[in-house]
Amino acid sequence: MSTRPARPATAGAFTRRSLLVAAGAVPLLGALAGCTDPAPGADAVTPQQVDRLAGQLAVQEELVAAVSAALAAAPDLAAAAPALADQCGQQLRRLQEAAPSVTGSATTSASAGAPASSTASAAPSAAPADPRAELRARLAAAADSHAAACLDFTGARAALLGSIAAGLRGQLVVLA
User: Fold this and answer.
1) Are 45 and 157 contacting, i.e. CB atoms less than 8 angstroms apart?
2) Per-residue model confidence as pLDDT tens digits over 6-26
3) I want to staple 45 with a disulfide (CB 3.0 to 4.6 A). Which of 6, 49, 81, 150 is the partner?
4) Structural domain boundaries of the chain?
5) How many angstroms separate the CA atoms of 100 and 47, rounded?
6) Domain 47-105+123-175's class?
7) Is the separation of the CB atoms in 83 and 70 below 8 Å?
8) What pLDDT, in 10s, does the model give residues 56-97?
């Protein structure tokens, strides 16, 4: 049996072990750097953004009411999209948590910043001819409104509005 002669370590060369240790330390340092407090004012919002967020709250509140009414009126819709009401309610709670001290009624603020279509802002009709089509229209209008509002924000609020819009678009596929 022959054994390979050991290579002499050259000065300044990295060993496999030192590279592995360094590779493990880099993500740890990055994670520690990310755990620092954000800079003051990094997540501050302007008064216009507060109004815009209040408008999006109104859009989502109207959607939650419309979904509840549609699912109660049409049991086949409730069977087709069992998680729709829960998802819309969770999205509303997340928007409420992200809203920095939104005061006043959401419907009053909605006129200040939400580009909601008349379909999303109209009161739910007593008996729509096609509840599935009506619900799809309301979901699409709310998704459009959240996606448009997303462009007015940065950071976590932009991500939240974008993810809500995407989630609503996913529900449209379920209801297709």
Assistant:
1) yes
2) 666 555 666 666 556 556 655
3) 49
4) 47-105+123-175
5) 10
6) mainly alpha
7) no
8) 999 999 999 999 999 988 888 888 888 999 999 999 999 999
